[in-house]
């Protein structure tokens, strides 16, 4: 029987549909998610299946959306909210950072916050500076939040189902350029544990640790490097918080060279934290300093020629791997 193939959009929709069917406490809400099916059509068809009580269109009020969801989670529901762009999660930062992330701790575990905030991140759609940021590092900095970044249809489905079942608030970051990305899509109740990295390609010459959409230029770079006899390992952490330090460090020990690629701003970001952990855990085995590649530290430009320059690409990954090994 041929393997089923689907898109990341279909995988997320399927995960929501299955979890809503499995658990009547699960409901979704956000701007235009019902009648319109979401700005990226991820929630299409769910209103017809589950009705307006469980698929709730909301006003344009991010703080209100997340605030309502926190309250619902405290009373035993399992809300999944959609914030159109990760840039707009800043409007709900008090509800996310000061309420959702803190309440389980402040009530000594008496209150659980099983909340998922789905949001779209990343540049490349010519949407300019206020609709193109990748703010995952912000939320990784906050104890009490889990941060998930899928890169394939299978992982999108499995990680979202695990996130919905988790009793803690989860920020689920979906790269807006990847919704049409195709790949194997498992049937049925498929889950991926939070906190486990995935090795997409094994190698011994260098390790490329890449998040979300950066998996694809990393794999392209690996193919280009292989043509020159440089066999690199490619790892996707899949969740940034919790982070699978062990898998990343063991790969660094094996290869001796590490490059970390993330679409968030390079300064003070995900690449820096992972580099610090890898450097500390594998210092005696490294043959060169850990290298980092993130988005340029500028507001994302609207002009296509300038925007493309801010996003890490395969060519730059190849250059850095060669520089490390020189």
Would you mind describing this structure in some detail?
- The chain is an alpha/beta fold.
- It folds into 2 domains: 180 residues, Thiamin diphosphate (ThDP)-binding fold, Pyr/PP domains (Rossmann fold, 3-Layer(aba) Sandwich), CATH 3.40.50; 128 residues, Rossmann fold, CATH 3.40.50.
- It is built from 12 helices and 14 strands.
- The strands form 3 sheets. The chain has a 7-stranded mixed β-sheet with strand order 3-2-4-5-7-6-12, sandwiched between helices.
- Strand 2, helix 2 and strand 3 form a beta-alpha-beta unit.
- The longest helix has 15 residues.
Percent of residues in helical segments? Answer: 25-40%
Q: What structural class should be given to the helix and strand makeup?
A: alpha/beta
- Largest pleated sheet: 7 strands, mixed
H-E order: EHEHEHEHHEHEHEEEEHEEHEHEHH
Strand tally? 14
Give the C-alpha Rg.
Answer: 20 Å
What's the arrangement of secondary structure elements?
Layout (H helix, E strand, L loop, with lengths): L4 E3 H15 L3 E5 L15 H5 L4 E3 L4 H13 L3 E8 L7 H8 L2 H4 L9 E6 L14 H5 L5 E3 L4 H13 L4 E6 L6 E3 L13 E4 L4 E5 L4 H12 L5 E5 L2 E3 L3 H11 L2 E8 L4 H13 L8 E5 L8 H7 L3 H12 L1
Write a concise synopsis of the structure shown.
The chain is 36% helix and 21% strand. With 326 residues, it is an alpha/beta fold.
Descriptive tags:
326 residues, alpha/beta, Rossmann fold, 2 domains, 7-stranded mixed sheet, 5-stranded mixed sheet
